[in-house]
């Protein structure tokens, strides 16, 4: 193999949309290995796997679900900043139904989960209707639910933190299946199902077409409004499932703080994964990597001793650096370094 062939192979690899988030994740893992050589070690105790990688996967599961819905919304040139509020509503709804009262012994787990998913479905229908059929700007439509939804969650919990002790419900976010946290299995099934739907049917192509050129898409007869509507419904469902996992994991529902700023992490995960905020191009696997990057970064800041009050600043700085590296101008210079002289920024 000649030097030119080698450089050409590297250039081809660098053009892959997944290579940049993958490299970022590898660098974060390498940093953790330098600080803690046993970072990747996994311990098996009572048939359950424990360790930093398992903890990161477990905590990244809800963010992955929220980011999955956000990816498809952004691919259609939209945005959904209400997902954090939907997470809070779903957790509050489930907790309200599970906790026994004077007049009720509490509802079964499946009723609580279905009710939580139901409020996510209604939230998605609300956002989808405002965006698709009313014609409201996505950021304004979802801002309405972001504010009102947080209020609804606080009304459901009466402004209090509701503890949850139902074993079946606690298993969803804190239990184990085949050694792995159950929440990881839930996220994996939903990710793989969504990937199969997007890549194995024409729906993924339609979503990309809407993001690239909505006018042309409408002229060729594609039911653009219906597809955009369904995308927001899906985002509401994934956010509500994340709310179930989060409230189960922390064993409580907090209408004030549950899912707070989660929409920002989801948008970051989507962009770090290579999805364009201009719409059209999207990568579900890239989004999964983006969610893992954010959760690994959070773990890293704590493990290296960054003060809690400085966590957000450090996190923002790292995301800024990663975003700059993934920018078109940075890619141009990197490709130029490998001999692609004809590339233009």
TrEMBL record:
Keywords: Cell membrane, Membrane, Transmembrane, Transmembrane helix. InterPro entries: ABC_transp_permease. The chain crosses the membrane at residues 20-44, 56-75, 81-100, 107-126, 184-207, 227-246, 258-277, 284-304, 316-338. It holds the Pfam family BPD_transp_2. It comes from the Bacteria. GO terms for cellular component: plasma membrane. It is a multi-pass membrane protein. It is found in: Cell membrane. The keyword Cell cycle does not apply. One of its GO terms (molecular function) is transmembrane transporter activity. Its main location: membrane. PANTHER family: ABC TRANSPORTER PERMEASE PROTEIN YPHD-RELATED-RELATED (PTHR32196), GALACTOFURANOSE TRANSPORTER PERMEASE PROTEIN YTFT (PTHR32196:SF19). This is ABC transporter permease. It comes from Pararobbsia silviterrae.
């Amino acid at each position: 193999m000649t030097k030119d062939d080698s450089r050409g192979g590297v250039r081809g690899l660098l053009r892959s949309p997944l290579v940049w988030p993958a490299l970022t994740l590898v660098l974060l893992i390498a940093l953790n290995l330098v600080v803690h050589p046993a970072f990747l070690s996994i311990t098996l105790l009572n048939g359950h796997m424990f360790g930093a990688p398992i903890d990161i996967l477990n905590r990244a599961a809800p963010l992955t679900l929220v980011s999955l819905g956000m990816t498809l919304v952004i691919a259609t040139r939209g945005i959904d900043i209400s997902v954090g509020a939907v997470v809070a509503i779903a957790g509050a709804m489930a907790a309200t139904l599970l906790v026994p009262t004077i007049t009720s012994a509490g509802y079964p787990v499946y009723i609580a989960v279905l009710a939580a998913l139901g409020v996510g479905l209604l939230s998605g229908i609300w956002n989808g209707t405002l965006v698709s059929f009313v014609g409201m700007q996505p950021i304004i439509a979802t801002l309405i639910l972001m504010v009102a939804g947080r209020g609804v969650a606080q009304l459901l919990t009466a402004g209090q933190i509701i503890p949850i002790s139902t074993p079946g419900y606690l298993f969803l976010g804190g239990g184990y299946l085949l050694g792995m946290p159950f929440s990881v299995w839930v996220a994996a099934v939903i990710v793989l199902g969504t990937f199969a739907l997007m890549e194995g049917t024409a729906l993924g192509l339609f979503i990309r077409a809407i993001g690239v050129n909505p006018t042309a898409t409408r002229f060729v007869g594609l039911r653009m409004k219906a597809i955009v509507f369904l995308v927001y419904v899906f985002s509401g469902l994934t956010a509500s499932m994340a709310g179930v996992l989060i409230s189960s994991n922390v064993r409580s529902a907090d209408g004030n703080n549950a899912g707070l700023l989660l929409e920002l992490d989801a948008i970051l995960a989507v962009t770090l994964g290579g999805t364009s905020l201009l719409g059209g191009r999207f990568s579900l696997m890239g989004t999964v990597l983006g969610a893992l990057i954010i959760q690994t970064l959070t773990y890293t800041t704590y493990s290296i001793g960054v003060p809690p009050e400085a966590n957000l600043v450090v996190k923002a700085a790292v995301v800024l650096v990663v975003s700059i590296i993934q920018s078109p101008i940075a890619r141009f210079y990197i490709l130029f370094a490998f001999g692609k002289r004809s590339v233009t920024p």
